[in-house]
Specification:
Elements: H1 3-32, E1 37-42, H2 53-60, H3 62-69, H4 82-89, E2 95-102, E3 107-114, E4 117-123, E5 126-132, E6 137-139, E7 150-152, H5 167-175, H6 181-186, E8 187-192, E9 197-202, E10 212-216, H7 220-238, E11 245-247, E12 255-256
Parallel strand pairs: 1-3, 4-7, 7-8, 10-11
Antiparallel strand pairs: 2-3, 4-5, 5-6, 8-9, 9-10, 11-12
Helix pairs in contact: 3-4
Length: 257
């Protein structure tokens, strides 16, 4: 065997020994790192959504989220499975998603993103819970200002980890995400009817009283566009606010009275 070949073999053996030693040392080091603290962070600080009820709920519930994570201190940090912790944390009604990481200094960092309210459900005259775009319910946060349509007629009880059963409400909440701001501004309250209709109460202003608008739930996007067209082209331009009721359920005509 040539001398150059032997040198490469020796170098390979030495490199393998060094790598093995480092691996053993690293394994022992990892095993010796203990979990010293659990830190809960939120994504609100880097988001435009900082004034939302969701962020307020997360800021006030950091301790609850840490307890929900169920991570005990003084255990081997790298024996804690981040995916298991994240699965526990998303059971919190205000948490949409959670990212869990471990730091070499012994910290478990849980970064949570809040659910974004789209509707506020009112039962017996009292706000009871919010609904996000996926239909999940979040407890009402009284201390935070909100600008959401009020939803009446949904009699389902609050459930922290299951979406509402009503397909109409789920579709309505999802639609609110990309709703035209002009239409959003028109809607003050929505009322579910057992017939499958939705009764909309428009937003009252100084010179424009609220009116009732009947729409069919299964064609809501098109009928809301029709509402906007009617409002801008007729009600606002003609200043005819004697109309109290508008029915948009028919394709070929708009019924008013």
């Amino acid at each position: 065997m040539k001398a150059s070949a032997r040198r490469w073999i020796y170098r390979g053996v030495i490199a393998l020994c060094v790598f093995s030693i480092l691996a053993v040392v690293g394994w022992h080091w990892r095993a010796g790192v203990l979990l010293t603290s659990v830190e809960v962070r939120d994504s609100c600080e880097s988001s435009w959504f900082t004034s939302s009820p969701g962020c307020a709920a997360l800021l006030g519930d950091a301790g609850t989220i840490a307890r929900l994570a169920g991570a005990e201190t003084n255990v081997a940090l790298y024996s804690v499975d981040p995916s298991v912790i994240a699965d526990r944390v998303v059971r919190h009604p205000w948490v949409r998603s959670a990212d869990v990481s471990r730091t070499p200094t012994g910290r478990l960092v849980i970064t949570v993103s809040p659910r974004e309210p789209r509707l506020l459900v009112v039962q017996r005259g009292t706000p009871v819970y919010f609904v996000d775009e996926d239909g999940y319910r979040m407890p009402f946060v009284e201390e935070v200002a909100y600008d959401l349509p009020l939803l009446y007629g949904l009699n389902e009880k609050f459930h922290p980890i299951e979406p509402v059963k009503s397909s109409t409400v789920r579709a309505l909440a999802a639609m609110m995400v990309d709703l035209d701001p002009a239409i959003d501004a028109l809607i003050s309250e929505l009322e579910l009817r057992s017939s499958g209709e939705i009764l909309i109460h428009t937003t009252a202003a100084k010179d424009t009283p609220s009116i009732e608008v009947r729409v069919q739930a299964d064609d809501l996007p098109n009928q809301l566009q029709k509402l906007r067209a009617y409002w801008t082209q007729h009600a606002v331009k003609t200043r005819d606010f004697n109309i109290k009721h508008v029915d948009l359920r028919f394709d070929s005509r708009i019924i008013t009275r």
